[in-house]
Amino acid sequence: MVGGRRGPWQLLKLLPGLAVAGVCLWYAVRDVDWPQVRDRWAGARWSLAPVMAVLLFSFFALKALRWKLLLDPVSRMPVRAVAGPLMIGFMANNLLPAHLGELVRVHVLGRTRGVPRAAVLSTVVLERLFDLVAILVFLGAGLVADPRLRDDYHRAVVVVAVLTGVMLAGAVTFVCASDRCLKIVDWISNRCLVFLPSRWRMGLVELVASAAGGLGALKRPRLAVGIVATSLVKWFLMGLMVWVSLRTLGADDVFGPSLVVVGVIAVAILLPAPPGYVGVVQFCFTSVLALYAVDANTAIAASVYYHLWQFIPVTLAGLWCLQKTGLGWREVTEVKAGSDRGNGAAD
Hints:
This protein is an all-alpha fold. The chain has 15 helices and no strands.
């Protein structure tokens, strides 16, 4: 349950994220000259703010469109029907720890549209897969784009390329032979993972089965192309947001580095993190941009600007969408594990 328990255990669950945030913030600001940061903000190119607004809106519009395409085999809905739960989930990610916003948006869509939450959850798993492949593509492109990093980090470029190829091959195999893959996972669970509790092994098989059940969209060429295209374009837009943030705070010739920053952020937020990924974003900006000789003052100023765009408009939009659903905050955050078992439908 999310939001149902209180006391020491609830606080204890926050500690890993808080520890990560503390370490990341310390690393990000250790070489920062705060008067210089103030000067960067004073001389910022605020005329680029409308560009950030358009990019942010376009990013979430494409994300909603992609989720709609993934959900089509489960339940055909207009984009606006999934956009609300999506924004509520991102708002929850900004206010709750441990990426709980992903469960919140699944819960909200199930409650408001009567869609089986197990099937919705499988589309979220597929989203992660497509995101990771797209991220690796842009991360590799960013590394190759700069001659210095291409030479100094040749091994990293090769690793990224191999990982991308392996993930694509695995995804294609899973799509084309999902039933056989499910049988293999079931065999491994019953023969090789017997040392694990039975409920863990059953959960693994159920997770793979749920993902296989959500693969219907990928077996339709038109939907598959749309999903792949939106995945690539939306992360490119996020790269542009990083680039515009850096340009706003005075950095030039940083298009390639912006793609690398996005790739590193997308991987880093998979770690335990506090609400809103405070500290993690700043760490990614400063650590990556240091490789490109961008000074820490500009990097930290740009990271705060970028982060504010990700936090304030998204949180406000999510709260507005939550109010439109008629659901309360406590209600949408009380996500009970296994509530769909037995009937496969939303409450």
